[in-house]
Specification:
This protein has 363 residues and is of the alpha/beta class. It contains 14 helices and twelve strands. The longest helix has 32 residues.
Length: 363
Protein backbone atom coordinates (compact mmCIF):
# COMPACT_ATOMS: atom_id res chain seq x y z
CA UNK A 1 0.00 0.00 0.00
CA UNK A 2 1.41 3.35 -1.07
CA UNK A 3 0.10 6.54 0.57
CA UNK A 4 0.96 10.02 -0.66
CA UNK A 5 1.16 12.74 2.01
CA UNK A 6 -0.06 16.03 0.54
CA UNK A 7 -1.14 19.43 1.78
CA UNK A 8 -0.31 23.11 1.67
CA UNK A 9 3.22 24.17 2.67
CA UNK A 10 3.88 24.41 6.42
CA UNK A 11 0.95 22.26 7.57
CA UNK A 12 3.23 19.68 9.20
CA UNK A 13 3.61 17.14 6.37
CA UNK A 14 7.35 16.62 6.70
CA UNK A 15 7.23 16.66 10.51
CA UNK A 16 4.57 13.95 10.35
CA UNK A 17 6.50 12.01 7.70
CA UNK A 18 9.68 12.12 9.81
CA UNK A 19 7.80 10.93 12.86
CA UNK A 20 6.01 8.00 11.24
CA UNK A 21 8.93 6.77 9.17
CA UNK A 22 11.91 8.04 11.18
CA UNK A 23 13.40 8.76 7.76
CA UNK A 24 14.89 12.12 8.66
CA UNK A 25 13.34 14.08 5.80
CA UNK A 26 14.32 17.76 5.85
CA UNK A 27 11.83 19.83 7.82
CA UNK A 28 11.86 23.62 8.15
CA UNK A 29 9.58 26.59 8.74
CA UNK A 30 9.48 27.82 5.16
CA UNK A 31 7.49 26.79 2.08
CA UNK A 32 8.75 24.14 -0.36
CA UNK A 33 11.36 22.66 1.92
CA UNK A 34 10.51 19.28 0.34
CA UNK A 35 11.93 19.41 -3.18
CA UNK A 36 12.07 15.73 -4.14
CA UNK A 37 9.46 13.30 -2.76
CA UNK A 38 10.74 11.51 0.34
CA UNK A 39 9.81 7.83 0.64
CA UNK A 40 9.63 5.81 3.84
CA UNK A 41 8.41 2.28 4.59
CA UNK A 42 6.51 1.61 7.83
CA UNK A 43 5.71 -1.78 9.34
CA UNK A 44 2.02 -2.30 10.08
CA UNK A 45 1.67 -3.01 13.81
CA UNK A 46 -0.07 -6.36 14.29
CA UNK A 47 -0.31 -8.03 17.71
CA UNK A 48 -1.52 -11.21 15.99
CA UNK A 49 1.93 -11.68 14.44
CA UNK A 50 3.53 -11.23 17.85
CA UNK A 51 1.42 -14.09 19.21
CA UNK A 52 2.28 -16.32 16.25
CA UNK A 53 5.97 -15.52 16.75
CA UNK A 54 5.66 -16.61 20.39
CA UNK A 55 4.23 -19.95 19.20
CA UNK A 56 6.75 -20.73 16.47
CA UNK A 57 9.95 -18.75 17.30
CA UNK A 58 10.40 -18.26 13.54
CA UNK A 59 13.61 -17.43 11.70
CA UNK A 60 11.83 -14.51 10.00
CA UNK A 61 9.15 -12.08 11.17
CA UNK A 62 7.54 -10.21 8.27
CA UNK A 63 4.70 -7.76 8.94
CA UNK A 64 2.72 -6.00 6.24
CA UNK A 65 4.19 -2.63 5.24
CA UNK A 66 2.89 0.76 4.15
CA UNK A 67 4.95 3.02 1.92
CA UNK A 68 4.57 6.73 2.67
CA UNK A 69 5.55 9.33 0.07
CA UNK A 70 6.03 12.91 1.30
CA UNK A 71 5.13 15.14 -1.64
CA UNK A 72 6.05 18.84 -1.88
CA UNK A 73 3.51 21.35 -0.55
CA UNK A 74 0.92 22.34 -3.12
CA UNK A 75 -0.31 25.91 -3.46
CA UNK A 76 -3.08 27.70 -5.32
CA UNK A 77 -2.13 27.54 -9.01
CA UNK A 78 -0.07 24.33 -8.69
CA UNK A 79 -1.94 22.79 -11.64
CA UNK A 80 -0.65 25.69 -13.76
CA UNK A 81 2.91 25.44 -12.49
CA UNK A 82 2.77 27.70 -9.42
CA UNK A 83 5.04 26.76 -6.53
CA UNK A 84 6.63 23.49 -7.58
CA UNK A 85 3.74 22.76 -9.89
CA UNK A 86 2.82 19.81 -12.05
CA UNK A 87 5.94 17.76 -11.34
CA UNK A 88 4.63 16.95 -7.89
CA UNK A 89 1.04 16.48 -8.97
CA UNK A 90 2.44 13.68 -11.15
CA UNK A 91 3.94 12.02 -8.05
CA UNK A 92 0.44 11.76 -6.55
CA UNK A 93 -0.81 9.78 -9.56
CA UNK A 94 1.34 6.85 -8.47
CA UNK A 95 -0.14 6.34 -4.97
CA UNK A 96 -3.07 4.16 -3.85
CA UNK A 97 -4.57 6.81 -1.58
CA UNK A 98 -3.91 10.36 -0.44
CA UNK A 99 -3.20 11.41 3.13
CA UNK A 100 -4.22 15.08 3.07
CA UNK A 101 -2.59 16.83 6.04
CA UNK A 102 -4.73 19.77 7.14
CA UNK A 103 -3.44 22.42 9.51
CA UNK A 104 -5.77 22.50 12.51
CA UNK A 105 -3.79 24.61 14.93
CA UNK A 106 -3.07 28.31 15.41
CA UNK A 107 0.56 29.35 15.90
CA UNK A 108 1.85 32.82 14.94
CA UNK A 109 5.39 31.39 14.89
CA UNK A 110 4.61 28.97 12.05
CA UNK A 111 3.96 30.69 8.74
CA UNK A 112 0.74 29.83 6.87
CA UNK A 113 0.79 30.53 3.14
CA UNK A 114 -2.68 32.08 3.36
CA UNK A 115 -2.11 33.93 6.63
CA UNK A 116 -4.18 31.80 9.03
CA UNK A 117 -5.48 28.30 9.71
CA UNK A 118 -8.78 27.60 7.94
CA UNK A 119 -9.32 23.85 7.35
CA UNK A 120 -12.28 24.24 4.97
CA UNK A 121 -10.47 26.77 2.76
CA UNK A 122 -7.25 24.76 2.77
CA UNK A 123 -9.04 21.54 1.81
CA UNK A 124 -10.85 23.32 -1.01
CA UNK A 125 -7.56 24.79 -2.29
CA UNK A 126 -5.94 21.36 -2.62
CA UNK A 127 -9.10 19.74 -4.02
CA UNK A 128 -9.37 22.42 -6.70
CA UNK A 129 -5.78 21.94 -7.81
CA UNK A 130 -6.31 18.18 -8.12
CA UNK A 131 -9.47 18.77 -10.15
CA UNK A 132 -7.81 21.34 -12.44
CA UNK A 133 -4.93 18.96 -13.09
CA UNK A 134 -7.43 16.18 -13.87
CA UNK A 135 -9.32 18.41 -16.32
CA UNK A 136 -6.11 18.99 -18.27
CA UNK A 137 -5.31 15.27 -18.15
CA UNK A 138 -8.81 14.27 -19.29
CA UNK A 139 -8.66 16.63 -22.25
CA UNK A 140 -5.70 14.65 -23.58
CA UNK A 141 -7.34 11.29 -22.85
CA UNK A 142 -10.57 12.33 -24.57
CA UNK A 143 -8.67 13.42 -27.69
CA UNK A 144 -7.00 10.00 -27.85
CA UNK A 145 -10.29 8.24 -27.22
CA UNK A 146 -12.03 10.11 -30.04
CA UNK A 147 -9.37 8.83 -32.43
CA UNK A 148 -10.10 5.27 -31.27
CA UNK A 149 -13.83 5.84 -31.87
CA UNK A 150 -13.07 7.13 -35.36
CA UNK A 151 -10.99 4.01 -35.99
CA UNK A 152 -14.00 1.92 -34.85
CA UNK A 153 -12.04 0.36 -31.99
CA UNK A 154 -14.33 -2.08 -30.09
CA UNK A 155 -15.76 -0.55 -26.93
CA UNK A 156 -14.21 2.87 -27.59
CA UNK A 157 -17.57 4.69 -27.71
CA UNK A 158 -18.58 3.56 -24.21
CA UNK A 159 -15.24 4.64 -22.79
CA UNK A 160 -15.49 8.01 -24.54
CA UNK A 161 -18.95 8.62 -23.10
CA UNK A 162 -17.64 7.82 -19.61
CA UNK A 163 -14.65 10.11 -20.05
CA UNK A 164 -16.85 12.95 -21.28
CA UNK A 165 -19.19 12.55 -18.27
CA UNK A 166 -16.23 12.69 -15.89
CA UNK A 167 -14.83 15.74 -17.69
CA UNK A 168 -18.16 17.53 -17.42
CA UNK A 169 -18.38 16.85 -13.66
CA UNK A 170 -14.76 17.93 -13.11
CA UNK A 171 -15.51 21.16 -14.98
CA UNK A 172 -18.33 21.78 -12.49
CA UNK A 173 -15.82 21.44 -9.64
CA UNK A 174 -16.78 17.90 -8.57
CA UNK A 175 -14.02 15.46 -7.60
CA UNK A 176 -14.15 12.21 -9.56
CA UNK A 177 -14.28 10.10 -6.39
CA UNK A 178 -17.66 11.64 -5.52
CA UNK A 179 -19.24 10.27 -8.71
CA UNK A 180 -21.09 6.96 -8.89
CA UNK A 181 -19.92 4.32 -11.36
CA UNK A 182 -21.27 0.93 -12.39
CA UNK A 183 -19.09 -2.18 -12.10
CA UNK A 184 -18.49 -2.01 -15.86
CA UNK A 185 -17.45 1.65 -15.62
CA UNK A 186 -15.12 0.92 -12.69
CA UNK A 187 -13.41 -1.65 -14.89
CA UNK A 188 -12.93 1.03 -17.57
CA UNK A 189 -11.44 3.35 -14.93
CA UNK A 190 -8.95 0.79 -13.63
CA UNK A 191 -6.00 2.37 -15.47
CA UNK A 192 -7.15 5.99 -15.29
CA UNK A 193 -4.84 7.68 -12.72
CA UNK A 194 -7.03 10.66 -11.84
CA UNK A 195 -5.86 12.59 -8.78
CA UNK A 196 -9.38 13.43 -7.65
CA UNK A 197 -10.39 9.78 -7.97
CA UNK A 198 -7.91 8.69 -5.29
CA UNK A 199 -9.41 7.78 -1.89
CA UNK A 200 -8.56 10.40 0.76
CA UNK A 201 -7.75 10.30 4.47
CA UNK A 202 -7.72 13.72 6.09
CA UNK A 203 -5.01 13.91 8.75
CA UNK A 204 -6.10 16.82 10.94
CA UNK A 205 -2.84 18.10 12.45
CA UNK A 206 -4.18 19.49 15.70
CA UNK A 207 -2.57 21.31 18.62
CA UNK A 208 -0.77 19.13 21.18
CA UNK A 209 -3.10 20.21 23.98
CA UNK A 210 -6.17 19.11 21.96
CA UNK A 211 -5.03 15.60 21.02
CA UNK A 212 -7.15 13.86 23.67
CA UNK A 213 -10.22 16.06 23.10
CA UNK A 214 -12.94 14.23 21.14
CA UNK A 215 -14.46 17.52 20.02
CA UNK A 216 -11.51 19.69 18.99
CA UNK A 217 -13.27 22.36 16.86
CA UNK A 218 -10.98 22.27 13.83
CA UNK A 219 -11.04 18.46 13.78
CA UNK A 220 -14.85 18.39 13.84
CA UNK A 221 -14.82 20.68 10.82
CA UNK A 222 -12.50 18.33 8.94
CA UNK A 223 -14.50 15.25 9.99
CA UNK A 224 -17.72 16.83 8.68
CA UNK A 225 -16.08 17.35 5.28
CA UNK A 226 -14.69 13.78 5.28
CA UNK A 227 -18.09 12.29 6.18
CA UNK A 228 -19.77 14.20 3.34
CA UNK A 229 -17.31 12.60 0.88
CA UNK A 230 -17.29 9.05 2.31
CA UNK A 231 -13.64 9.73 3.15
CA UNK A 232 -11.88 9.24 6.49
CA UNK A 233 -10.53 11.69 9.06
CA UNK A 234 -7.92 11.10 11.75
CA UNK A 235 -6.90 13.56 14.47
CA UNK A 236 -3.15 13.58 14.77
CA UNK A 237 -0.49 15.82 16.27
CA UNK A 238 2.69 15.77 14.20
CA UNK A 239 4.66 17.11 17.15
CA UNK A 240 3.42 14.34 19.47
CA UNK A 241 4.10 11.69 16.81
CA UNK A 242 7.63 13.12 16.60
CA UNK A 243 8.05 12.63 20.36
CA UNK A 244 6.59 9.09 20.24
CA UNK A 245 9.07 8.14 17.50
CA UNK A 246 11.97 8.85 19.88
CA UNK A 247 10.71 6.49 22.62
CA UNK A 248 11.19 2.77 23.17
CA UNK A 249 8.14 0.50 23.47
CA UNK A 250 7.73 0.78 27.28
CA UNK A 251 8.19 4.58 27.28
CA UNK A 252 5.80 4.87 24.36
CA UNK A 253 3.01 3.03 26.19
CA UNK A 254 3.52 5.19 29.28
CA UNK A 255 3.56 8.40 27.23
CA UNK A 256 0.33 7.48 25.41
CA UNK A 257 -1.33 6.61 28.71
CA UNK A 258 -0.36 10.02 30.14
CA UNK A 259 -1.98 11.67 27.13
CA UNK A 260 -5.15 9.60 27.54
CA UNK A 261 -4.58 7.79 24.23
CA UNK A 262 -4.81 4.07 23.54
CA UNK A 263 -2.65 4.19 20.40
CA UNK A 264 -0.63 6.53 18.23
CA UNK A 265 -1.88 8.64 15.34
CA UNK A 266 0.16 6.46 12.99
CA UNK A 267 -1.63 3.30 14.15
CA UNK A 268 -5.01 4.99 13.66
CA UNK A 269 -4.00 6.27 10.23
CA UNK A 270 -2.94 2.81 9.06
CA UNK A 271 -6.19 1.25 10.32
CA UNK A 272 -8.21 3.92 8.51
CA UNK A 273 -6.14 3.37 5.36
CA UNK A 274 -7.00 -0.34 5.37
CA UNK A 275 -10.72 0.44 5.81
CA UNK A 276 -10.65 3.12 3.13
CA UNK A 277 -9.03 0.85 0.56
CA UNK A 278 -11.01 -2.26 1.57
CA UNK A 279 -7.92 -4.21 2.61
CA UNK A 280 -7.51 -7.10 5.04
CA UNK A 281 -4.61 -9.30 6.15
CA UNK A 282 -4.28 -13.06 6.27
CA UNK A 283 -1.44 -14.71 8.16
CA UNK A 284 0.97 -17.57 7.53
CA UNK A 285 2.97 -19.13 10.34
CA UNK A 286 5.67 -21.73 10.88
CA UNK A 287 9.24 -22.14 12.15
CA UNK A 288 10.66 -20.54 8.99
CA UNK A 289 8.50 -17.39 9.02
CA UNK A 290 5.43 -15.70 10.41
CA UNK A 291 4.03 -13.19 7.94
CA UNK A 292 1.08 -10.92 7.23
CA UNK A 293 -0.20 -10.68 3.66
CA UNK A 294 -2.38 -7.78 2.51
CA UNK A 295 -5.28 -8.51 0.13
CA UNK A 296 -8.50 -6.87 -0.98
CA UNK A 297 -11.70 -7.77 0.85
CA UNK A 298 -13.58 -10.38 -1.17
CA UNK A 299 -10.42 -12.15 -2.40
CA UNK A 300 -10.90 -15.90 -2.82
CA UNK A 301 -8.46 -18.48 -1.47
CA UNK A 302 -6.63 -19.31 -4.75
CA UNK A 303 -5.97 -15.62 -5.47
CA UNK A 304 -4.76 -15.11 -1.89
CA UNK A 305 -2.41 -18.07 -2.38
CA UNK A 306 -1.15 -16.34 -5.53
CA UNK A 307 0.07 -13.44 -3.37
CA UNK A 308 2.63 -15.84 -1.92
CA UNK A 309 3.63 -17.47 -5.21
CA UNK A 310 1.97 -17.87 -8.60
CA UNK A 311 2.48 -21.67 -8.34
CA UNK A 312 0.29 -21.71 -5.22
CA UNK A 313 -2.61 -20.27 -7.21
CA UNK A 314 -1.98 -22.33 -10.33
CA UNK A 315 -1.84 -25.63 -8.45
CA UNK A 316 -4.27 -24.75 -5.65
CA UNK A 317 -5.88 -27.78 -3.98
CA UNK A 318 -7.27 -26.42 -0.72
CA UNK A 319 -6.60 -24.02 2.14
CA UNK A 320 -6.36 -25.23 5.74
CA UNK A 321 -7.64 -22.32 7.82
CA UNK A 322 -8.12 -21.42 11.45
CA UNK A 323 -9.28 -17.99 12.52
CA UNK A 324 -6.76 -16.10 14.62
CA UNK A 325 -9.34 -15.75 17.41
CA UNK A 326 -9.78 -19.55 17.57
CA UNK A 327 -6.04 -20.15 17.43
CA UNK A 328 -5.38 -17.60 20.19
CA UNK A 329 -8.02 -19.13 22.45
CA UNK A 330 -6.73 -22.65 21.75
CA UNK A 331 -3.13 -21.60 22.56
CA UNK A 332 -1.67 -23.80 19.80
CA UNK A 333 -2.39 -25.04 16.26
CA UNK A 334 -2.48 -28.65 17.47
CA UNK A 335 -5.08 -27.82 20.14
CA UNK A 336 -7.17 -25.89 17.60
CA UNK A 337 -7.08 -28.88 15.26
CA UNK A 338 -8.13 -31.25 18.05
CA UNK A 339 -11.09 -28.97 18.80
CA UNK A 340 -12.16 -29.16 15.14
CA UNK A 341 -11.43 -25.47 14.52
CA UNK A 342 -9.09 -25.98 11.55
CA UNK A 343 -11.21 -25.99 8.39
CA UNK A 344 -10.48 -27.24 4.90
CA UNK A 345 -11.67 -24.67 2.35
CA UNK A 346 -11.87 -24.88 -1.44
CA UNK A 347 -11.59 -22.53 -4.42
CA UNK A 348 -14.73 -20.52 -3.64
CA UNK A 349 -13.77 -19.64 -0.08
CA UNK A 350 -13.60 -15.87 0.51
CA UNK A 351 -10.71 -14.97 2.80
CA UNK A 352 -11.40 -13.27 6.14
CA UNK A 353 -9.24 -10.81 8.05
CA UNK A 354 -7.05 -12.73 10.50
CA UNK A 355 -7.30 -16.12 8.77
CA UNK A 356 -4.21 -18.19 9.63
CA UNK A 357 -3.73 -20.35 6.58
CA UNK A 358 -1.70 -23.21 5.13
CA UNK A 359 -2.18 -23.59 1.38
CA UNK A 360 -2.04 -27.05 -0.20
CA UNK A 361 -1.06 -27.07 -3.87
CA UNK A 362 0.35 -29.31 -6.56
CA UNK A 363 2.11 -28.10 -9.70
Amino acid sequence: MKLGIVGLPNVGKSTLFNAITRAGAECANYPFCTIEPNVGVVMVPDERLDFLASLYSPEKYTPAVVEFVDIAGLVKGASKGEGLGNKFLANIREVDAIVHVVRCFDDPNVIHVDGSADPKRDIETIELELILSDIEYMERRIDKQRKLVKAQNPGATSVLQLYERIYEELSEGTSARLLEFSDEENEMLRDLPLLSLKPVIYAANIAENEIALPEAPYFLEVKKIADSQNSRAVAISAKIEEEIAMLDEAERAMFLEELGLSDSGLDRMIRESYKLLGLISFLTAGPQEVRAWTIKEGTKAPQAAGKIHSDFERGFIRAEIVSFKDLFESKSYTAAKERGLVRSEGKEYVMKDGDVVLFRFNV
